[in-house]
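>> received
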Amino acid sequence: VAVVVVLVQVEVEFVLVVLVVVLVQIEVVVVILVDHE
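>> returned
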């Protein structure tokens, strides 16, 4: 059971990291587009 909990925690952390990276990329793209306009 402990192993499953650890795996779930790792998956959640990985998903959060991916979401943060995606949001940062989107924010950078928006800033670049706004700057060009």
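>> The radius of gyration is 16 Å.
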